[in-house]
Amino acid sequence: MRQAAMKVINRGGTMAAVATAALLCGCVVAPAPGYGEVVAYSAPPPLRYEVVGVAPAPGYFWIGGGWYWERGVYAWHPGRWAAPRPGYRWAPQAWRPVGNTWRMAPGHWVRGYR
Hints:
2 domains, three-stranded antiparallel β-sheet, flat, 9 strands, alpha+beta
């Protein structure tokens, strides 16, 4: 009886270790899109024209869409409305040429105002 209980505990520990390793490997191999600097090998296309409707609530502001480098090609992500964050300002996405590449800093919140 005692041996059977030990085997179950041992399998549970092994399964937890395998699940944890799989999660950690996923974080290293495939980081979430849109975070950190991105490097592309050609210039981004011109921005698309977007129709901006009415804000969903007073104080909301429009974050324009932009091109993202995904799986070796540019993909358009449409703009969206965002609620303001007190004490922060929105810094939009920006592409800049660096040597033979283009680097994108994703849009993000910055503490303070300028």
